[in-house]
Structure formats: structure tokens, C-alpha cells
Model the fold of this input.
Amino acid sequence: MVNLEQFQQMAEEVILKRAFEFPVHWVMIGVNGVFIIGEWATADLGADLKTIVLSGEPRKLEFPVTITFVDRTGRAAHFSFEKPDGPVLTHQTGQA
Done:
């Protein structure tokens, strides 16, 4: 499974440091089709990422796992967890 602490840190990096505009929606998809869709509504660093839709068991996400963040302007960043030890930025749209 994707380390949730790493995911939260990555989300903060993408959303705050790259100046994404709120709300930001995200999707996490495993190679086996398990997916989680969520939202981060405000710039509150302590706020949890809200899960909106869940298909399958989150613990059953199989690698590689792809994660996409999209802000209210359509700006997006795509990450891939090839293995459990961390994400790699694979693509970003919009201004850095």
C-alpha cells in the first residue's frame, strides 16, 4: 500500500509549494483498478484529505500506483509510486 504519511507530504508539496488553487481534487489508481478519489478544500496544512469515492480496499492498491492532483483552474500534477518507498513526479501541466 502507498504510505499515507508520504501521500500527505506529497499532497502538501504539490498543492502548497506549487501554488495550486483550492479546491484541489485527487485520484489514486492502482494497477489492479482499485482507486480512491478525494478533495482538499482549503489551504489548512492540518486538514486531512477528504475521501469522496473508494473502489475496493485501499490496502489492496497494487503497484505501480498513479496519483493525479487537479486544482480549480485545471492545473494538474501526476505522480507514480513504482514501489512502496516513494513517489516520482511523472508529469505536470500548467505553470510551475
Q: What stands out?
A: Strands lie at 24-30, 35-40, 50-55, 65-70, 76-83, 86-92. The longest strand covers residues 76-83. Residues 7 and 27 are 12 Å apart (CA to CA). The chain has a mean pLDDT of 76.
